[in-house]
Amino acid sequence: MRVLPFGPGAILAEYESLAEVMSVDAALRHSDLAGIDEVIPAARTVLVTYNRVDRTALEKLLVPGPSVPRSEGPIVEISVVYDGPDLEEVSDATGLSIDEIIETHSGTVYSAAFLGFTPGWAYLVGLPQSLQLPRRPTPRTSVASGSVAIANEFTGVYPTLSPGGWHLLGHTTATMFDVDRDKPSLVMAGDRVRFVRS
Question: In this structure, how many other beta carbons lie within 10 angstroms of the beta carbon of residue 100?
């Protein structure tokens, strides 16, 4: 772990793994330490903004410890039509039938580890091992908004039209990001997500 100053009211901690990030993120969110304004996890870092915080106490919370469950986050249900163009390829690569892929993907409750890549993109962890595949060897130049995808240990939903290298399982009509909403991102770090087959 490395702790770096990040301006007058923030601190950035770097970690070796996403598991450490999620442990620290959960500890900070469960803490009653006064003065913390915002906690922003990423793949290998946690950014904490604060105002008149006890720095010694804060730095103790930044030390990774045993995993703290983040199951208290609200569940966001996302309706999915499983009609993705990569279902056959995923079936060939995993040995699962298309129905088994759909049942496995929709039968899991995921946790939003962090947001990134583009506004509203939540990296969801908890993808069963049987569906974990590396990114596609050649990314697409254009992936439709609402595409539901998997890659490595993650699943997620493309919030806008963008390039992408994940395996596409289906699509949703849910609006993942809307700057005019009180909560622009449909899914926030710490939320749980369940995909519902429609």
Answer: 15
